[in-house]
Amino acid sequence: MTRPEPTEIEHEVKKVDLIVSKSDAEGNITYVNPIFVKISGYSQASLLEQPHAILRHPDMPKVIFHYLWENIKQGQEIYAYVKNMCADGGYYWVLANIKMAKNPDGSFRNYMSTRRCITPEAKEKIDSFYKQLLDIEQTQGFEASKDAFYQFLEKNNLPDAVTFNNYMKQLNK
Ligand SMILES: Cc1cc2nc3c(=O)[nH]c(=O)nc-3n(C[C@H](O)[C@H](O)[C@H](O)COP(=O)(O)O)c2cc1C
């Protein structure tokens, strides 16, 4: 599948929208709900079995996904702001909750993400924070952006995923 060229066209996520997907252990899509299909602009068939990175927007810093995977692999849910790219190159912002679901015997069942709209205030703050991280990533490399991200966590007293999640949820109120 050819990657679209990003455009400045923002797609609206409404307050009632709950954008849901599930994946296997590698992040390959196994389920999408109708609103996911609608907003992404891809058909359901072209999304299933594709990696979630099909939605990846080039404005997203790598370190956010790194932090996300570090946590969800251990069974720790994460709330993270994500700018996603649609099939037409447009974008939408969401606050995504991503977590692991387990089978009754404790084995891995799937990962599930539920995404909701974000406030203009949260968008402004996160957009500027992600721009800083991306700039560091592109000029000094991934490790430097990771350092900057961990400095942000330290400065805001977010030593673990629970405090991180609370901070991100609070920002969207
Ligand atoms: C359940 C689940 C949902 C995800 N949702 C998104 C998403 O909406 N957008 C996105 O860019 N990455 C999402 N990811 C993360 C991707 O798997 C991937 O790490 C990310 O797009 C970065 O891609 P890259 O590692 O190929 O650079 C999700 C992962 C999981 C497990």
Brief digest:
The protein is α+β, with helices and mostly antiparallel strands and 173 residues long. It contains six helices and five strands; from the N terminus they run E-E-H-H-H-E-E-E-H-H-H. A hairpin with a 5-residue loop joins strand 1 (19-23) and strand 2.
- CATH architectural grouping: 2-Layer Sandwich
What's the alpha carbon Rg, rounded to whole Å?
16 Å
Order of helices and strands: EEHHHEEEHHH
Structural category: alpha+beta
* Residue share in helix: 25-40%
Please explain how this structure is put together.
By secondary structure, the protein is of the alpha+beta class. It has a single domain (19-171), classed as PAS domain (Beta-Lactamase, 2-Layer Sandwich), CATH 3.30.450. The protein is built from six helices and five strands, in the order ββαααβββααα. The chain has a five-stranded antiparallel beta sheet with strand order 2-1-5-4-3. A hairpin with a 5-residue loop joins strand 4 and strand 5. The longest helix has 21 residues, at 120-140. The model has no long low-confidence stretch (mean pLDDT 97). The structure holds flavin mononucleotide (FMN). The site of flavin mononucleotide (FMN) has 17 residues, from strand 1, strand 3, strand 4 and strand 5. Flavin mononucleotide binds next to strand 1, strand 3, strand 4 and strand 5.
